[in-house]
Amino acid sequence: MANNFCTELGIPEYLHKDNRQDQQIFSIDEGLYRRFPKIQNGKLSISDKGDIDQSIFSTDNMSCNRQDFCLTPEDVLFSSTSNTHYFHYGIVRISIKEIENIVIQNTSIPANKYELKVVHDPEECMYPHTVVKIFENGVLMEKPPGPSIKISIRKKYAQICTLIKAPQ
User: What pLDDT score was predicted for residue 127?
Assistant: First the structure.
């Protein structure tokens, strides 16, 4: 059954949560879609060589859409809170398997290890909504890690992502 609020926002019905529960089992080749603007933090998100700038990635519960619950990658371009959508944004895909294989060692405290976990976190108007959480030594971090760890994580994301659509 369609959610009237979500429909008014222009979000297709198949993306509405509609009482569906979260699903924490991911298919082996599943990916996440992330949208990004043409300019992020005052610079181009894609270099002249086609490299994705690490600044398009977040380290604070990075928000994405699960591939398996989207009909197309462009589903990530819908805003789940307003009718101002992001159709001019670009899209990257990141493999869930590759995200969860990322391990960052803290160079100043070598015993500290940072790992990432993908968590399906449906929103009322965006069932595919998913976040990436950071764990330090197996414990969920309540706040983002320090700058050097953030940079290392963002660099890894930029290395493993695939450009699906360039921003306009």
Answer: 98
Cα 52 to chain centroid, rounded: 14
CB 31, CB 151: distance < 8 Å:
no
Structural contact between residues 61 and 135, judged by C-beta atoms closer than 8 angstroms: no
Are 100 and 118 in contact by the 8 Å Cβ rule? The answer is: yes
Q: How many CB atoms lie within 10 A of CB 24?
A: 11
The pLDDT-based confidence of 105 (bands split at 50, 70, 90) is confident
Task: Give the containing element (helix H, strand E) for 150.
Answer: helix 147-160
Q: What is the pTM of this model?
A: 0.94
- Please give the full DSSP string across 56-120, using - where no structure is assigned: G--SSSEEEEEGGG-SSGGGGGS-SSSS---TTSEEEEEEHHHHHT-EEE-SSSTT-EEEEEEEE
**CB hemisphere CA count around 143 (13 angstroms):** 2
Q: How do residues 118-133 score in pLDDT, each as one tens digit? A: 999 999 999 999 999 9
Look up the domain containing 85 and give its range: 4-16+23-165
How many domains does the chain divide into? 1
Q: Which of 11, 138, 153, 158 is nearest to 82 (CA)?
A: 11
| pLDDT exceeds cutoff 80 at 16 | yes
